[in-house]
Design brief:
The complex is a heterodimer.
Chain A: H1 8-35, H2 55-61, H3 66-69, H4 84-91, H5 102-110, E1 116-117, H6 130-135, H7 140-144, H8 161-169, H9 192-202
Helix pairs in contact in A: 4-5
Chain B: H1 3-13, H2 41-45, H3 48-54, H4 71-89, E1 96-97, E2 113-121, E3 124-133, E4 136-142, H5 155-164, E5 174-175, E6 178-179, H6 182-197, E7 204-208, H7 214-226, E8 231-234, H8 242-250, E9 255-258, E10 265-269, H9 280-289, E11 299-304, H10 309-313, E12 316-319, H11 325-337, H12 346-351, H13 362-374, E13 379-383, H14 389-401, E14 409-412, E15 422-423, H15 424-436, E16 442-445, H16 450-453, H17 460-463, E17 469-474, E18 486-489, E19 498-501, E20 507-510, H18 523-529, H19 538-549, H20 559-570, H21 590-608, E21 613-618, H22 632-636, E22 650-652, H23 654-660, E23 667-672, E24 675-683, E25 691-695, E26 725-735, E27 762-764, H24 765-769, H25 774-781, E28 802-807, H26 816-824, H27 832-836, E29 845-851, E30 858-864, H28 873-877, E31 883-885, E32 891-893, H29 903-907, E33 914-915, H30 926-930, E34 944-945, H31 951-964, H32 976-980, E35 986-990, H33 997-1002, E36 1007-1008, E37 1020-1023, E38 1025-1027
Classes of the chains: A mainly alpha, B alpha/beta.
Chain lengths: 216, 1037
């Protein structure tokens, strides 16, 4: 009767053990790496909207301030998508016959709200507040990226809790003077560290990292 | 008082006594000394079953789903839905954002708005401020500018937010079961009106609720002018006879306005004035203020049959059967009338001889009389709604004789608009007689469910179908709806335009917070339809009326437009309070009064002598007369005294139960005047002997899904002759083993039956004032920093150090805080079966402790929510850091980390953590979702939750003030329970501000920490309850 296991089976067993272990680690590791990719976080993925609204045109070309449309950003938790009527402030005069704007006119005259797709989303148990950030010197670009260069808006930052806490632990690098809040290209003069510390003092910035700051 | 006596008194009332004998010897031979206070009779007796149950923080089987699906099949269901959910999670979320087309003025998405409005109960208004998120009302608070509210609201008022989103509300306009449009109905009412006008409306009748609304009164006048022979009736099954009492005393119907702020002594004759009636919020606040220990502390005597909230805070309480209260009042008048200076009472004293064998201690009566005499001009005698007019008249005579008129009680012209129309049970009787005589062709009912609330001998159920046209305006398809041929769904008070008046006459315009969710219309519109104005809409009718009245308030271009806006914004119309009558106009003729009331008293005595058990009906503190029966928050609210949820019970005293051989949970059949009623018995310490209390409002049989089938209908043996008390009932035991949904033994802080210090501390004024009393010495040991090896965390550098103080001396146990918390924090209800299993979710529980004898105990109520320990035991045991400490000392609960091990709850000595055993919030209707507070996470199954000190309010206020560049001021940030508390027993603030109210209360000599001996360093401090007993009556219990 021949041997059931030959010496080479030892090597085989060792290799398969290694493959099993490596596979397990690799799967876990792979998943962990995957979860950290921009793809898994929904970043760099321009969202198609029901109307081809182009931020590039409105902010860069026309120089309209973010807060003209997102006008509750400094006094409410939400920045707010503007009501249809606000679009027509201009578009009743400008491009008022454009077929591209038909959905806006339809919404206004039929009193049916526009249905936009959400780009920035935090889970239901996260209570983010725009107004405190804007009033303490965190600019739009810090979280939303160069919206003035986006044809369709995409998520520019991961919005993970670690990412939030990075800034809440060291907010200085993301602070700017209040009059530059909506400026997409502002850069501090001189040493950013020094400027940040000065601004934190000026704005009386006290970031909080207790859980209930955001979760309640 | 000598030093020796002082010490004795201290020992007598020493509430911290660890070792105390058991006076009744209920558990003779027990080895472990029991604390003096107890929550239930079972606990007092040391029942083995109870102590076994209390050892677990959740009863056996609490985590088993046994209701219909077995745990195994449940897991299979969960498994498959989890798999499906897993698949769904592979897709990227595709959420929508839907902005306004035109953003309404003043609306900032994300920031709530607050609107003033008012709701009426029994005709009197409470002014409210309602929070609205993007057009959805979410939270009701009191309006500080309104005299009937002063910034707080009752549990009923606050619970109305749930009623607004109630799916069971009547939705369809129907005639003979067929749906019909409101416009078509208006046309028909127009045609009907024309037909009825032919004989001046001789066959037209209206049955409404008592109301103080000027618009409704005006509409009634105008309808009367159009149909001169039509008649209005008003009926409420809970109406007080105070008005008739005033008629007897002063010769005209007046309404009382009480002022306990100026009373050093209050005698309540069956009046639950702290938790019942239109003045309760103002009275509770003033009464609590007057309880500040010191020379000016007030004293409260209560005479009542069954323990009430007011009886619970009384310094002296006399148990008397309801029908004996009249004799007591007469005896008091007799006793005082014999004294110099009480000549007014002399004729009364002669006419009303007290019975030879009084059921009360003569010493008690004369002590009260002497105390009243001592406090002339600053005392108050107040009679309750259940007492007959004669008792109200006697109370009035006593107040006049004591010189209290114009000080603690004033009389104003009636605010209710019903005084000139027939009202009360006699009115309903008259209507029934007319129906019997075939005189009624069209009956318009705007009263709430008269078929259910009417006295049973009126036979309204048989008579109503005889009326050819019955038009019923209703919130629910209730018992009355099934007997009426035309149904008009009513708009909820928060959907209605209207107006209302407070007790002092102050007018509020009622404005809607939301358009009717289910096409309801208001009473104003229904009445206006009979004037051909039904299509105007309530807003226009109300506005036109007040435009017509505007001349009273001012003149000028656009005066009304501006005034109207201001009235709506403020919630009150200025200068509309009516002046009380001058004291000089209110003479009482003692002789005439004696003549008028002596037959009434004789009648009362006859009822007393009827033998058998006395039955007493009571308004339920959860569902009132049944109108709130479909409100699940109120249903699940533990009754302030019995701690019963979801149902009512036949309440009897321990002695009577012993005599009849009954135990709690026995089923009995009550026979009274050839009528039978079956219900479960509950033994209630403090209940008067030989009497039964039957709470109204249960046993509903309408189409409301929540209310249906809960409890028994006490109204089925309630007659028009004896609406509140009557003798002659007998009782037979028919069964046993009934299980109540009762919370009184849940969440025990002594789970293994170990001896703990008294959780709720009470003592006497003398002990508080004596610095060296045992009370003060022991309290000293129950506060401050406990010995520790660790260096305590230093919170003094933080901006705030949040803390709370709860003054047990002010807490009445009224439950307003529980509903406030439930509404603010999206707390689900679980149902009776789950309450029995200990799964109730309310974050605040109000522990009601008895001390003293079983027959006549004293009561202390103690609200307990998470006390935010600085060294919190729950935090050490959480394996996933779901409960952690914040820099400002909050014990935080992070729902998204919680995996539901329940270790924290197991380790919490206060037992304030609540666990979502099931998806209670998943089952709520779509409409209910609209009313959730968007600032608070809606927790799902398997999550631990507990009081957060309303952290959402803290963070919101922090952001507002940080943007404004200032600190949060003391008092501008209130937790929901604090804001809702009528007696201001709860105070919240920062201990880092030495001047804050909470800092001062933490430094008070009555302050102690709950379970201080465990070294948890709670941030919520309690202040001991203080009683101010009459030294003459110092108790020996």
């Amino acid at each position: 009767m021949s041997l059931l296991f030959r010496p080479r089976h030892n090597t085989l067993a060792q290799i398969s053990l290694f493959v099993l272990a490596a596979g397990a680690v690799g799967t876990l590791g792979g998943l962990m790496v995957y979860a950290r990719t921009p793809y898994a976080r929904g970043m760099q993925d321009p969202i198609e909207q029901p109307l081809q609204f182009d931020h590039r045109h409105h902010t860069r070309d026309e120089g309209i301030d973010c807060r003209y449309c997102h006008n509750t950003v400094d006094r409410s938790p939400h920045a707010s998508i503007p009501p249809t009527s606000l679009c027509l402030n201009c578009h009743s005069q400008v491009w008022n016959k454009s077929p591209l704007l038909e959905p806006i006119r339809q919404s206004f005259f039929e009193n049916k709200p526009m249905v936009w797709r959400r780009v920035y989303r935090v889970p239901d148990f996260v209570y983010f507040n725009h107004s405190i950030h804007v009033n303490k010197g965190v600019g739009c670009v810090s979280c939303h990226g160069r919206v003035d260069q986006m044809a369709a808006v995409e998520k520019a930052t991961p919005l993970t809790m670690g990412w939030c806490l990075d800034c809440h632990r060291n907010p200085e690098k993301n602070l700017r003077p209040l009059e530059e809040i909506t400026n997409m290209t502002w850069k501090p003069e001189g040493d950013p560290e020094v400027a940040g510390r000065l601004l934190a003092e000026q704005h009386d910035v006290h970031t909080r990292i207790s859980c209930t700051t955001c979760h309640r | 008082m000598s030093c020796e006596e002082n010490k004795k008194a201290a020992r007598r009332s020493r509430s911290l006594a660890i070792v105390q004998g058991d006076p009744a010897g209920v558990h003779a031979g027990a080895q472990v000394p029991k604390p003096r206070s107890w929550r239930s009779l079972e606990e007092r007796a040391g029942s083995a079953e109870l102590s076994a149950a209390a050892r677990r923080e959740f009863p056996a089987g609490a985590s088993e789903l046994t209701d219909s699906v077995s745990r195994r099949s449940f897991m299979q269901l969960v498994g498959s839905s989890a798999a499906l959910a897993g698949l769904a999670a592979c897709q990227k979320p595709n959420e929508k954002i839907i902005p306004f087309v035109r953003r309404p003025e003043e609306t900032t998405p994300g920031n709530p708005l607050h609107f003033a409005t008012a709701v009426s109960l029994d005709g009197y208004a409470t002014g409210l401020i309602v929070e609205s998120h993007e057009g959805r009302p979410t939270k009701i608070e009191g309006n500080p500018a309104h005299p009937g509210s002063l910034g707080t609201a009752t549990a009923f008022d606050q619970g109305m937010i749930l009623g607004l989103y109630d799916d069971d509300r009547a939705r369809a306009f129907t005639r003979k079961g067929q749906p019909i449009a409101w416009r078509s109905m208006l046309g028909e009412i127009g045609g009907l009106g024309d037909r009825l006008r032919a004989n001046e409306g001789a066959a037209l009748r209206f049955l409404g609720e008592p109301t103080a609304s000027p618009v409704v009164a005006d509409l009634r006048r105008r309808i009367q002018a159009r149909f001169p022979r039509a008649k209005f009736f008003s009926y409420s099954s809970t109406a007080s006879e105070a008005g008739q009492g005033a008629k007897l005393s002063f010769g005209r119907p007046l309404e009382p306005r009480h002022n306990v702020a100026r009373a050093s002594l209050i005698l309540s004759l069956d009046a639950d004035f702290l938790a019942d009636g239109p003045e309760q919020l103002a009275l509770a606040r003033d009464f609590a203020r007057g309880r500040t220990p010191g020379p000016g502390m007030n004293r409260l005597y209560v005479v009542e049959p069954s323990l009430t909230v007011t009886g619970g805070v009384a310094d002296h309480r006399l148990r008397l059967r309801g029908s004996e209260v009249a004799a007591f009042a007469a005896a008091l008048a007799h006793e005082l009338g014999a004294r110099p200076g009480f000549e007014l009472l002399a004729p009364l004293a002669a006419a009303v001889r007290p019975p030879a064998t009084a059921p009360w201690d003569a010493r008690w009566l004369s002590a009260v009389a002497r105390d009243l005499e001592k406090n002339r001009g600053k005392s108050l005698v107040i009679a309750g709604r259940r007492q007959p007019a004669a008792v109200h008249a006697l109370a009035n005579a006593l107040n006049v004789a004591l010189g209290n008129l114009g000080v603690t009680v004033a009389w104003g012209p009636p605010v209710l608009a019903d005084v000139d129309i027939a009202s009360g049970p006699p009115a309903l009787w008259e209507l029934m007689t007319e129906i019997t005589g075939g005189l009624v062709d069209t009956l318009v009912i705007t009263a709430r469910n008269p078929v259910y609330t009417a006295p049973v001998d009126f036979k309204i159920e048989q008579l109503l179908p005889r009326v050819p046209n019955t038009i019923y305006h209703t919130l629910y398809e209730d018992e009355t709806a099934t007997l009426c041929n035309t149904l008009i769904p009513a708009a909820h008070p928060l959907e209605s335009w209207g107006d209302a008046r407070a007790v002092d006459g102050t007018v509020s315009i009622q404005q809607p917070l939301i358009a009717p969710l289910w096409s309801g219309v208001t009473e104003v519109e229904v009445l206006a339809a009979f004037l051909g104005e039904g299509d105007l809409g309530a807003h226009e009718v109300v506005r036109r009326y007040w435009q017509g009245q505007a001349g009273r308030f001012g003149s000028g271009l656009d005066f009304f437009e501006h005034a109207w806006e201001k009235w709506l914004a403020d919630g009150i119309v200025p200068d509309t309070a009516t002046k009380p009558e001058a004291v000089t106009e209110l003479a009482v003729d003692g002789a005439a009064l004696a003549k008028a009331i002596s037959p009434l008293l004789t009648a009362a005595r006859k009822a007393e002598g009827a033998g058998g058990l006395e039955i007493a009906f009571s308004v339920d503190p959860k569902v009132y007369d049944g109108r709130f029966a479909n409100n699940a928050w109120l249903q699940e609210l533990p009754h302030p005294i019995t701690k019963l949820t979801w149902e009512n019970a036949v309440l009897i005293s321990p002695a009577t139960a012993g005599k009849l051989g009954l135990v709690t949970g026995d089923l009995v059949e009550i026979s009274y005047r050839q009528r039978l009623l079956e219900g479960p018995v509950m033994i209630q310490p403090g209940h008067v002997d030989d009497a039964l209390t039957l709470p109204l409002g249960y046993g509903r049989a309408g189409a409301e899904r929540v209310a249906r089938g809960l409890g028994f209908k006490a109204g089925s043996i309630r007659t028009g002759e004896a609406p509140w008390f009557d003798g002659g009932a007998t009782l037979v035991r028919t069964g046993g083993g009934y299980k109540f949904g009762i919370t009184q033994d849940h969440w025990s802080m002594s789970p293994d039956g170990r001896t703990t210090l008294e959780p709720a501390v009470g003592t006497t004024l003398a002990n508080v004032e004596n610095e060296h009393s045992e009370f003060n010495e022991e309290l000293e040991e129950r506060r401050g920093m406990p010995p520790t090896l660790h260096k305590p965390w230093d919170y003094s550098k933080e901006a705030y150090k949040w803390a709370m103080a709860i003054d047990l001396n002010k807490c009445t146990g009224c439950n307003a805080c529980v509903i406030a918390c439930q509404s603010e924090n999206n707390i689900p209800v679980v149902g009776k079966e789950n309450v029995i299993k200990g799964r109730e979710m309310q974050w605040i529980r109000i522990d009601r402790y008895f001390t003293g004898s079983v027959e006549d105990p004293e009561v202390i109520t103690q609200p307990v929510a998470c006390v935010h320990c600085e060294t919190a035991p729950c935090e050490y045991v959480c394996p996933v850091n779901a409960t952690v400490h914040s820099d400002e000392g909050l014990n935080e609960m992070v729902y998204n980390r919680c995996i539901g091990t329940r270790y924290c709850s197991n380790n919490c000595p206060y037992k304030v953590r609540r666990f979502n055993f099931f998806e209670y919030n998943g089952d709520v209707s779509g409409a209910r979702r609209l009313g959730m507070n968007p600032e608070v996470t809606v927790r799902s199954r398997g999550i631990m939750e507990k009081c957060t000190y309303c952290v959402q309010r803290i963070e919101r206020k922090r952001i507002d003030t940080r943007i404004a560049g200032r600190a949060i001021q003391d008092g501008e940030l209130q937790t929901a329970c604090e804001q809702g508390c009528p007696s201001q027993a709860i105070t919240f603030g920062s201990l880092n501000d030495p001047g804050s109210r909470v800092s001062r209360l933490h430094a008070d000599s009555r302050r102690y920490d709950l379970l201080h001996e465990l070294g948890t360093r709670p941030r919520t401090a309690y202040l001991a309850r203080v009683r101010n007993p009459n030294p003459e009556l110092a108790r020996s219990g």
